[in-house]
Design a protein that fits this description.
alpha/beta; 8-stranded mixed β-sheet
Length: 453
């Protein structure tokens, strides 16, 4: 298995391509596959299965009707790519992939045994969904993209979404059809409605965002009335403007149309409110385990200062504040920092300070004014998938905090960053958190302790 979940094999027929490496989604080790090439590179290719010639004993039938089926005429959802793999096997594979990646890319030959934590909810766990709109003839369709394609798989259900989220999605699609909304056509760069985003909380409330090409909103009043009356879980509706064709779904402008300004979530005893564009872990119950484990590994002592870098809406910041003398949260997304400040006030936490800044710029300015000793400093990192910029790693090496807790959603960038940090730090513990059952996405917590001089 490759890091992103594909099976990796060798081509046994195809003329001069024999022996070339093939990456094939929806496959498992030990299988023989007949497949169709969809991407060709100099040293490898990417293929889609057409037939499972010899099946792995680990293969199971996917529960979702939109998941891959070995039919050359099929079109499959490109979302959860491991439904053909038992969850218990998925978790073991994630541990193995973290170990292999840190060894191969980071050069770590002697790693601690990897811990695994998870909640038992393997379906209906996502609190965030992004649904694309398009057309088939004169009919609006909506769903997720097919693998390696912009083609939309029209769906009526998603087993990773809550039942309320699915019901709201179907209602909004039908409302869009009735009101005559024009879906966006990517290949022609025309149309209005691009995506629907649904964010839901453990309290049962839902925030809805329509991503559109421009600010006009035909039948806006009617749409708001219909959704408010037919979907009682919806407490807030936004419009986001994304005028360009981009891999980034949302644009920079958010328009509040109706209801609450923010969505409230309860996490680890904290009441957290967040804006529609702010980052929040997609699996709330598993995120609680992640946050608790991160704070446990930090071993914060009285009198310490904690740096929470890439802090988002401040969940880890506020949890760390229960044990530290002071905590500093840094994030470049200003709405998230505004949320974090509100959350600190809402939860009565006074020993926190938040800064709106790229992390590298904040660290460049130095923190000598807030922390006199590196031995009393703990750093928590939760960067985006791209990992930390090299300047961030360099500054951390200069600051030399006693301990670094690195939360990562990509083992490859984690390996890259840990390799540089290993000049001064050793990896003491590794934990895989199964935030994303049925998918190959991996969340990891690495504890780094300063090496003895």
């Amino acid at each position: 298995l490759a890091l992103q979940g594909d099976g990796v094999g060798r081509i046994t027929a195809a003329g001069n391509e024999k022996g070339k490496v093939a990456f094939v989604p929806y496959t498992l080790p030990g299988e023989t596959i007949r497949a169709e090439k969809i991407i060709e590179k100099k040293t490898y290719g990417r293929w889609l299965p057409e037939e499972i010639v010899r099946s792995s004993p680990d293969r199971i039938k996917p529960s979702c009707p939109y998941h891959f089926q070995p039919d050359p005429k099929g079109i499959w959802c490109g979302g959860c790519n491991w439904q053909h793999f038992p969850v218990e096997k998925q978790r073991e594979a994630k541990k193995r992939l973290v170990s292999e990646t840190l060894g191969r890319l980071g050069g770590f030959a002697d790693l601690p045994e990897i811990d695994l934590i998870y909640v038992d909810d393997r379906w209906r766990y996502r609190n965030n969904v992004q649904i694309a709109f398009g057309s088939r003839g004169d009919t609006i369709i909506s769903g997720f993209r097919a693998p390696d394609s912009h083609e939309i798989v029209d769906i009526d259900d998603c087993l990773l979404q809550s039942s309320a989220s699915v019901r709201i999605f179907n209602n909004i699609r039908q409302t869009a059809r009735v009101l005559g909304f024009t879906p966006y056509e990517r290949h022609k760069d025309r149309g209005w409605l691009k995506h629907l985003l649904i964010r839901s909380s453990e309290t049962g409330n839902v925030l809805v965002i329509l991503v559109t090409r421009n600010a006009r909103f035909p039948e806006q009043k009617k749409f708001l009335q219909l959704i408010a009356s037919q979907c009682p879980e919806v407490v807030s509706i936004y419009q986001n403007l994304q005028p360009v064709t981009s891999k980034v779904i949302t644009g920079p402008q958010w328009i509040h149309l109706w209801g609450e300004i923010k969505l409230e979530e309860n996490l680890c005893g904290l009441r957290l409110n967040y804006s529609p564009g702010a980052f929040f872990q997609v699996n709330t119950k598993a995120a609680s385990l992640l946050y608790q484990k991160a704070i446990q590994e930090a071993e914060i002592e009285p009198g310490m200062t904690v740096l929470d870098l890439y802090c988002g809406v401040g969940g880890l910041t506020l949890m760390a504040a229960q044990y530290a003398e002071q905590v500093i949260g840094v994030d470049e997304f200003s709405p998230a920092i505004a949320d974090a400040k509100d959350n600190a006030r809402e939860n009565g936490v006074a020993n926190v300070t938040f800064f709106t800044s790229p992390v590298e710029e904040f660290l460049r300015q130095g923190i000598s004014s807030v922390c006199s000793s590196s031995e009393s400093l703990i750093a928590i990192l939760d960067p985006p998938r791209a990992g930390c910029r090299s300047e961030v790693i360099d500054r951390l090496l200069s600051l030399a905090p006693r301990r670094i807790i690195y939360v990562s959603c990509d083992p490859a960038t984690l390996a890259r960053d840990l390799k540089v940090l290993s000049v001064k730090y050793q990896v003491s513990t590794l934990t895989v958190v199964d935030l994303f059952p049925q998918t190959a996405h991996i969340e990891t917590i690495a504890r780094l302790d300063k090496k003895e001089a």
